[in-house]
Structures are given as C-alpha cells and as structure tokens.
Amino acid sequence: MSHAMDLTQALGAIVGATHVLTDPQLTETYEHDWTGRFGGRAALVVRPADTEQVAAVVAACAEAGAAIVPQGGNTGLVGGGVPRGGEVVVSLTRLNALGEVDRALGLVPVGAGVTLGALQAHARAAGFDAGLDFAARDSCTIGGAVACDAGGARALRHGTARARVAGLEAVLADGTVVTRMAGLAKDNAGYDLPSLLVGSEGTLGIVTRVLWRLELRCDARVAALVPMESVEAAAALLAALRAEAPTLESCDFFLDDGLSLVLEHQRRSSPVEPRAPVYVLAECAGRSDPTDELAAALEQAGVEEALIADDTPGRERLWALREGHADAINAAGVPHKLDVGVPLAELGRFLAEVPAAAAAAIPGTRAILFGHLGDGNVHVNLLGPEPDDERADDAVLELVLACGGTISAEHGVGVAKARWLDRARGPAEAAAMRAVKHALDPDGRLNPGAVLPVRADQPSSPAAD
Ligand SMILES: Cc1cc2nc3c(=O)[nH]c(=O)nc-3n(C[C@H](O)[C@H](O)[C@H](O)COP(=O)(O)OP(=O)(O)OC[C@H]3O[C@@H](n4cnc5c(N)ncnc54)[C@H](O)[C@@H]3O)c2cc1C
C-alpha cells in the first residue's frame, strides 16, 4: 500500500471518509485560485470540523511526511491558498462556530471557517460592527483574513485584521495546539505568538479560532464620490477629511479608465459627468449624521462637484463602482494582481509611471489602478501578460521599491511574490524570518513556497518516499 493510500485512510479515521476528497471532480474547486492564475493538483483535500481534528490531521500529515496547504474561502490573490502540486489541502470552512458576543468587552470568539459576511451580520445583530470589510466578504473566512492580515477600505479607521485579533488559537506544524483566547486587554507574558501568526499566510501554523475585537456600530453613514483633477488634489481632500471629519471611515480612489471598464461590465451609464482623471470615494460613519462634517471637508478642499449618498442603496451604488473593479478586470482577462503600498508623497509619481513601466517590459500590457488612498495602497492589475510571464510584475515592483514602498500592502506575499521577499525586506530581516520559520516548522511542511521561497530539501508531496 502506498504512503498516499495510508494517509487517506488515516485522515478518514479522523474526519470521516466523506470529508477526505480524492475524486478530481470534487477536489477541482480547491485546486485553482480566484484569479485563475494559480493552482495545481492536490494529493487530497481534507475537511476537519474542529480544532481537535485539525491537530490530528496535521500530526498525521507530519507522520506521513506530507506538505500542507491551509485553505479558507480560497479568495486569496497571491496563490498561497492553492496547491502547487501534490500537497494536502486542509480546508477550514467547517470550523464555522460563532460564539456569543461579550458586550462588556466587545469581543466574540469566531471559528476560522466563519465568513467575514457571517461575522458582520452576527456583530450587527449584537449592536457592534466587525471593523473589517472588503468585497470578498461572503466567501473569505476569518482564518484567511487573519492569516493574510487583510485590510480593505475601513482599515483607514479600524486598522487591518491584526487590530481585530484579541486572541487566537492555532495548530502548529507538529500538531500541537496553542491557545490564547482569554481576551486579556493587557498580557505581556512572553513573546506574542498571535501577532506572529497574523499575516504568516499559513506558513507558521493553522489558525483554528480567533477572539475578534468588535467596533461600535455606526449606522449614520454618508458617502461622497468626488471627481478630482489630480492625485495631489485627492491628497489635499484626504487632509481636509482628516481635519474636519473625525468619523472618516474610508477614503478610496480609482482612475478614469478603471471606471470605464466597470461601467462597461456593469452595463451602467456614468453617474459622473464631466469625467475626471481621478475619483475619490470617501465614507463617514457615526452615531449621529456625519453629513455636516463631510460637507465641511469638501468645502475646505475647494470641491465644487460631488455625488453624495446618505441612504444604503445610494451608497451601495457608489461603492459598486469601486468594488466592481475586481470583477470587471477578471472579465477582461486573467490579471496579474499586485497589491502594493507607496508613501502618499510618491503616489502621484507611482500612478503616472506604472503604465509605461509595465508596457516597456511587455508591450501591450494594460494597467488598471485603484486602491485605498488613505493607506497609500494601490491595487495594480496588469492585463495582457501570459500567466507565467513576470516581466511586467517585476518592472512594477522595481518601481515600488524605488518609491520607498512595500511589495505587499494587504494581500500578502503568497507564492506570487516570494522571490521578492529578500529584496523587499533586506537580508537581515529575511534571515530572521527564515529562522522563525525553521524553529516552528523545521521540515518546511506548512505551505511550502509561500512567503519564503521553497528550499531544495523541503517535501512537496505526501507520497514522496
Ligand atoms: C473580490 C476580492 C476582493 C478582495 N479585496 C480585498 C481587500 O480589499 N483587502 C484585502 O486585504 N484582501 C482582499 N482580498 C484578498 C484577501 O486576501 C482575501 O479575500 C482574504 O484575506 C483571504 O481569505 P480566504 O479565507 O479566502 O483565504 P484563502 O484564499 O483560502 O487563503 C489565503 C492564505 O491564507 C492561508 N490560510 C487560509 N486560512 C487559514 C487558516 N485558517 N490558518 C492559516 N492559514 C490560512 C492560506 O494558506 C493562504 O496562504 C480580496 C479578494 C477578492 C477575491
């Protein structure tokens, strides 16, 4: 009997045979990512139901010498959640228990497989807000969001997923379970392991539960879509919003060619006329109506034209223009997606130079740019290059580093940018990261090739003899 067969049986004994998938028709959806750019065959897919089962699955894989790819909602955009060839995919979606909200502390225990959308609804029902939001909300999981340290539009006010983590439970590479779920506001005893696991993209441990920090629910909301002549004018508007609107929650931007693509895809006519090079979409949220604050900021920035929406359908119509970028781009081709950050002072230069830099690397490459203005975070989408041709990506990342920016602002490194990590972080920090990885996962079994480039002596297949 082969090692792979042994492992299938061992895992079936832990989770039940129906939750070990080997039929290619059943494993297929776990093997390709959302962009269609990344993927490979899995040895099998295993679907544990709770922490105990995850721990037993990881221990069985360790014994069989099998590499693991943890997977949540499979909405990640850097190829870190799908197999590259022969790994065991551990799907966490069955860990979907949502605990009771502790109203005094504003905390709620959440299973790693709960979707962000389900957590948002649960928090709202208890009078709170999840404090995190982005377009993949109905598919992405809390474990995945924490593993990637996801951001989104509201990070401007509430921080990234990291700021939501008041505690965490995880299974380490040898199957041991670490639990920090007491929710103590102050706890300085030793290294902060939960912090290390946030953003580790499944390479240091498998997140099984999170103690989620909630925000106050603010139902009085107003959004403004503001056409702007330049990125510099948009930055001046951001400064005015910060000065006049303490309720500012998000401040995103997109460009005119992106708007055209979205309108075409959504078969909508433009709500803004005349059109402009840059659009800022800002939203304020408070306990009482924030319209006056927003109006004061627009006036201070000298804005004469803006679309304002203070009702939910109106705000959703405005946000559909920004959030519709991902779908519209995917409909236009298989994009190379780069999620970078640059200092605000360099944003104008960066946006102006990306299209030419990408097209110089691969003629005909089209760059669609949008993102979170308040965080200097730009989603660079390149249409045209073949899936494996990284020349345009490399040109954009060179420009990012020249602007003093980061190769990943919120999507993570995954496999897409692993070979850039040393350049981006420098040799000292990259060496420290390798030391941490080696200490927690000496055999390199957890998500090999994600974040850090794969080592020659690492296993990639569970069946490797
Ligand atoms: C339309 C769309 C919009 C998006 N918008 C944003 C945005 O605005 N901001 C943003 O930050 N991101 C955004 N994303 C990408 C974002 O990274 C994911 O949506 C989310 O963080 C991943 O969650 P997931 O459950 O789908 O994880 P997956 O895709 O399944 O996995 C992502 C990574 O996390 C690891 N992982 C998953 N679950 C666990 C776990 N329980 N323990 C350990 N590791 C785990 C995987 O191995 C992989 O490396 C968007 C994606 C889409 C498709």
UniProtKB/TrEMBL annotation:
One of its GO terms (biological process) is respiratory electron transport chain. Gene3D superfamilies: 3.30.465.10, 3.30.70.2190, 3.30.70.2740, Uridine Diphospho-n-acetylenolpyruvylglucosamine Reductase, domain 2, Vanillyl-alcohol Oxidase, Chain A, domain 4. Coiled coil: none annotated. SUPFAM superfamilies: FAD-binding/transporter-associated domain-like, FAD-linked oxidases, C-terminal domain. GO terms for molecular function: FAD binding; oxidoreductase activity. The keyword Oxidoreductase applies. Keywords: FAD, Flavoprotein, Oxidoreductase. Residues 38-217 form the FAD-binding PCMH-type domain. Pfam families: FAD-oxidase_C, FAD_binding_4. Its cofactor is FAD. The keyword Protein transport does not apply. Residues 441-465 are annotated as: Disordered. Belongs to the FAD-binding oxidoreductase/transferase type 4 family. PANTHER family: D-2-HYDROXYGLUTARATE DEHYDROGENASE, MITOCHONDRIAL. This is FAD linked oxidase domain protein. It comes from Conexibacter woesei (strain DSM 14684 / CCUG 47730 / CIP 108061 / JCM 11494 / NBRC 100937 / ID131577).
